[in-house]
Amino acid sequence: MSRPDPSRKAYASERRSPVAVLSTWIERHVQTLVSSLGKLVRQPFATVLTVGVIGLGLALPACLYLVVLNASAVTEGIGSTVQLSAYLKIPMTAEQAQKVLRSIEARDDVLDARLVTPEEGLRQFEDMSGFGDALKALGDNPLPYAITLRPAPLFDSPQAVESLADELRTLPEIEIVQVDTEWVRRLDAILDALRQVVLLAAGLLGLGVVAIVGNTIRLDIYGRRDEIEVIKLVGGSNAFVRRPFLYSGTWYGLGGGLLAWVLVAAAVGLLAGPIERVATLYASAFRLHGLGRDGILALVAGGALLGWIGSWITASYHLRRIEPRA
Amino acid sequence: MISFQRVFKRYPNGREALAEVSFDLASGEMAFLTGHSGAGKSTVLKLIALLERPTRGQVIVNSRNTASVGSRAIPAFRRQVGVVFQDHKLLADRPIYDNVALPLVIAGVTRRELDKRVRAALDQVGLLGKETSFPMELSAGEQQRVGIARAVISKPPVLIADEPTGNLDPDLALEVMNLFKRLNDVGVTVMVATHDVHLIDRFGVRRIHIEHGQLAGLPPDVAA
Known about the structure:
The structure holds 2 protein chains of 2 kinds. Chain A is an alpha+beta fold. Chain A folds into 2 domains: 30-77 and 186-319, no CATH class; 83-180, Alpha-Beta Plaits, CATH 3.30.70.3040. Chain A has 11 helices and 4 strands. Chain A has a 4-stranded antiparallel beta sheet. Chain A starts with 5 loop residues before the first helix and ends in a 7-residue tail after the last helix. By secondary structure, chain B is an alpha/beta fold. Chain B folds into 2 domains: 1-80 and 156-224, P-loop containing nucleotide triphosphate hydrolases (Rossmann fold, 3-Layer(aba) Sandwich); 90-155, no CATH class. In chain B, the strands form 2 sheets. In chain B, strands 6-7-8-3-9-10 form a 6-stranded mixed beta sheet, sandwiched between helices. Chain B has a 4-stranded antiparallel beta sheet with strand order 2-1-4-5, with helices on one face. The two termini of chain B are 30 Å apart. The interface between A and B is large, with 35 and 41 residues.
């Protein structure tokens, strides 16, 4: 060791302040961010294919989600129009019937109630059924007093309506209570099942996105094998080599998320008109729901996250296997 | 600076590349590593750059026993050993500037420092002004000098080169060898594997000769 060790001086000059280290680190990341995007833009065909597949994979569960969301909105609208009909026992005087009506009106879970007299009921039946003449032949009016009521807004869930009906059935003056909510409950059950389907589809297609990005990145890694070996030869760590691939994967996912947003928005735009016409025919104020700000954010950010995960898994696995063969 | 102590290397395919090789290269010393192809020269260099590990024995580089360098620490270790290859291993799709700057980019050097040092390194090898050219636009000798600039830009205390003049005509080869000598003159420990006997004679530096994986005396053609 006759000469001074040149390494000491050389490395001492590379000791830098934390601020300089941080700003250099940020600078490198921004540079990688831009250059990885540039690489994707320079091979538009492959990029469009990958982003397209990811976009479709994300748009599918997003559309399913919207179907469930809108169907739920429809049934909620129906809930407030649910009617119960309570038929009173025969014989029943007008005063007794009025008393029952008042007791039902006084309930918290009832919005309003109306008494239908046997005469009124008969008139409605004649008007609606066209059996007026046949009924006249009966002579006596066979219809009981009836009370139609609507549940209060906070008590219009299928369960609440059902328990209201059960309580009315226990009243001694009441013979039969009819609730036409059976189909609403069935629809609700179907929607519950559909929600599970959305979750399942989102999970599976999310895994699909991870796999697509992973495979694309894998091909990219082996296409740039020589470059990776050289970088490792001059002292590049696995993390350094991996960084551009992580950015590529995130770009793919982000692009796929944006494409999915466009696809879903286009589908909503196409369907909004026809559905509005259907709603108008049913005198409903229903409007098709889109993804909304949170939904769009979740879709795009979710896409980017899945892309990052896919590239991280693949890059970590394959880059460790590429060692320089000088 | 570089020390081999009874190093034995057998590759997974069973080939024995080195058997009981011991030598010391002091800090700031320069040596030529000679021997026929397949004698074990490349293996010696690979062990120094930690591209391979010895089967038995110790390899000490920069006062560090390579056996104590874990796989996670290899990148940092390699940044202290400049390597020049016969086929220079440049990135064909990046300009000269990026190629030379690569080790500093890895080390996380600031932009301003980077500019300064890339220029200094290119100036050292006589290629100032070629920053924006691509490797294919340069001659073989120029490409090799870019490889040397890249190897020395992070100021490694040790520089090793594997047949750096193998593809060059005699004039260019001499030029490249002079470059190594100049780097050695400023204190870098240099080891150059070569079979270019005529060149070796022009430099009065130490020779480490390997035959069949073992250190050997100098062959008669230069012993005289």
